[in-house]
Design brief:
Blueprint (H helix, E strand, L loop, with lengths): L1 H8 L9 H6 L3 H12 L3 H17 L6 H7 L5 H12 L3 H14 L18
């Protein structure tokens, strides 16, 4: 239940790690211990994983600016998103996007440069 709550609400402006234990009726300490025992890691690791997976999806679409991607992954400040993404993936969001683009070009995508409004693949 906690995992689904995080996956659904990680971008909500009122989302906090304190909201998760309240949602399932436990104290923060009890919830943290139970969650770590069940998953092997802290809730914050789950939140980061969910955010970064979503960021990777959005970076594959050049229609989204970095500011939009930051907001859609729960970061109010784009520099915080960039820092977290770099720590997570080893690449800046821009470098990741370029690498993803190069990968798609190798798979037959149209050779439009990444940028606002560019299409990743030609229409069917």
């Amino acid at each position: 239940m906690a995992i689904q709550f995080v996956e659904r609400h990680f971008v909500d402006s009122v989302f906090s790690l304190r909201a998760v234990p309240r949602r399932v009726g436990l104290s923060p300490g009890a919830f943290g211990r139970l969650f770590r025992r069940e998953t092997g890691g802290p809730v914050s690791a789950l939140v980061l994983t969910v955010r970064m997976q979503r960021a990777e999806e959005l970076l594959g679409d050049p229609a989204f600016s970095m500011k939009e991607i930051a907001a859609r992954t729960g970061y109010a400040h784009p520099p915080n998103f960039t820092r977290a993404f770099r720590r997570h993936s080893g690449l800046s969001p821009t470098a990741f996007r370029k690498a993803r683009w190069a990968q798609r070009l190798g798979a037959g995508a149209e050779p439009h440069p990444p940028g606002k409004g560019a299409m990743l693949e030609s229409p069917p």
